[in-house]
Design brief:
Blueprint lengths: L3 E5 L6 H9 L3 E6 L12 E4 L5 H11 L3 E3 L4 H14 L11 H4 L1 H11 L6 E5 H6 L2 H7 L7 E4 L10 E3 L5 H9 L6 E6 L4 E10 L2 E13 L8 E7 L4 H19 L4 E10 L3 E8 L8 H7 L3 H10 L2 H9 L8 E7 L10 H6 L5 E6 L17 E7 L2 H14 L28
Parallel strand pairs: 1-2, 1-4, 2-3
Antiparallel strand pairs: 5-8, 6-7, 6-8, 9-10, 9-12, 10-11, 11-14, 12-13, 14-16, 15-16
Helix pairs in contact: 1-11, 2-3
Length: 432
């Protein structure tokens, strides 16, 4: 019998998943609310239904006799896939009752605290208290936390609605800004960790955490008081040996509580020499616009893993038997360029940089004449996947991109924020 798979998502990062599914002989259906999603061009059939319309998509699955559903790369897609699978009677590695531990930041923090796992100090604050409470009540609500703090929604992703709070005078104003980004009646206020940050992707098999990759997640503070934005993720991490075991142990204990026995599992965490690991967030999916790096650096294809999970699970064991986290074939990075909400007039520099020898894949999201929007189908101005033979060479190539990137609006104003490589610990050897 020919398998029929629903791939939830039609934007560019899903095109390779559709291609690989078709190459295996599966019939492919793609679906989301973006009518112009490029993955539609490659699928056998496509539907334009918002991913949050669980009932409609579940009904479509039954009518189309879909026998597998898969997605990744965003928390919202993970949530919707889990609910659709449950309603349509399709297999899924999570159940709806497990979702709060992967979607609700406060539920995640509470589990970490209950298990005695390291996480920044936090408090949940009601929106009513922010709007109507006295200053004394507000201060009592965050007692014991150390500045700087950050305020964040409980239900959003992609760094939306997150603000840095430097001192007591900023709490109410910044927290109310966060409240504008959520429908929840509470927000999260937590201690801000300025240590090194990491992205970790793993796969759970037979109740055990198998590490796919650990990357340095670099950020740049582009404007005073603004949360630093993601500007480069580097594979493998230069601190891989220092953080691998501790981070894996955290995830193993976490799934021991949540009951996850298979499927994608990712974590963002902090680490400082002498201070250990602190967990930032845990998710039940892979990172978007980043999973390509595991293929570039290790020859480990995330799309193959996701499809194997649906129909050929025995192959997953073979994939990990061949995977050596400490033996990269290349050094790789994804460079993210973000910017101000201005109209784009000149894309000369992004196009020129796309021709650099180290570029494996360029992705320029806007056309000349278009206006940058804060949230939508275009998450960045541009991104570049680059690879080199050594970490030192990778850093030098990155510096070239960061210094030469420039996108102007019709009045000559700079659209792109200026990226920087962070200052790493002095004396830490860089492989040349």
């Amino acid at each position: 019998m020919k398998h029929k798979v629903l791939i939830l998502g039609t934007l560019g990062e899903f095109t390779e998943l559709v291609r690989k599914a078709k190459a295996r002989g599966y019939e492919t259906i793609v679906c989301d609310g973006y009518p112009d999603g490029i993955a539609r061009e490659y699928a056998d059939k496509d539907y334009t239904i918002p991913v949050t319309d669980i009932d409609a998509i579940a009904q479509m699955c039954r009518e189309e006799s879909v026998d597998g559903i898969i997605t990744s790369f965003s928390d919202l897609l993970l949530e919707c896939m889990t609910k659709i699978a449950d309603k349509a009677g399709l297999p899924c590695y999570l159940k709806p009752e497990q979702l709060p531990w992967y979607r609700d930041k406060s539920a995640c923090r509470e589990v970490l605290e209950k298990l005695g796992l390291p996480t920044p100090g936090f408090r949940k604050i009601s929106v009513d208290l922010l709007r109507q409470g006295t200053e004394a009540q507000l201060q009592e609500g965050i007692a014991g936390l150390e500045y700087p703090l950050i305020s964040k929604p409980l239900d959003k992703y992609g760094s939306r609605g997150i603000f840095i709070i430097h001192d007591q005078s900023e709490i109410r104003r910044k927290a109310l800004q966060t409240a504008e980004y959520t429908n929840c009646q509470e927000i999260l206020i937590e201690e801000y960790n300025d240590g090194y940050e990491f992205n970790m992707m793993t796969w759970v098999m037979d109740g055990r955490v198998n590490v796919v990759s650990i990357a340095d997640r670099e950020k740049t503070e582009v404007e005073e008081g603004m949360l630093p934005i993601s500007t480069r993720n580097v594979y493998p991490s230069r601190f891989l040996t220092e953080v691998e075991k501790g981070a894996t142990d955290v995830l193993q204990r976490y799934i021991g509580y949540t009951g996850q026995t298979e499927g994608a599992l990712s974590m963002q965490f902090f680490w400082k020499p002498g201070k250990g690991i602190q967990v930032c967030e845990i998710a039940g999916r892979f990172f978007g616009y980043e999973h390509e790096l595991t293929d570039m650096v290790y020859g480990f294809q995330i799309e193959e893993l996701l499809l194997d999970y649906l129909y050929e699970k025995e192959r997953i064991r073979e994939m990990f038997a061949k995977h050596n986290l400490h033996a990269p074939q290349k050094y790789g990075a994804v460079l993210y360029f973000q910017g101000r909400q201005l109209q784009i007039a000149d894309q000369t520099a992004p196009r020129r940089l796309a021709e650099e020898k180290c570029v494996v894949k360029p992705w320029i999201f806007y056309k000349e004449g278009e206006k940058v929007v804060e949230y939508g189908p275009n998450p960045y101005l541009a991104l570049y996947y680059i690879e080199t033979e050594t970490r030192g060479e990778l850093d030098r190539e990155t510096e070239k991109f960061f210094s030469e990137m420039s996108i102007r609006d019709p009045e000559g104003k700079e659209v792109a924020y200026k990226n920087r490589i962070p200052d790493y610990e002095k004396g830490k050897k860089i492989d040349d």
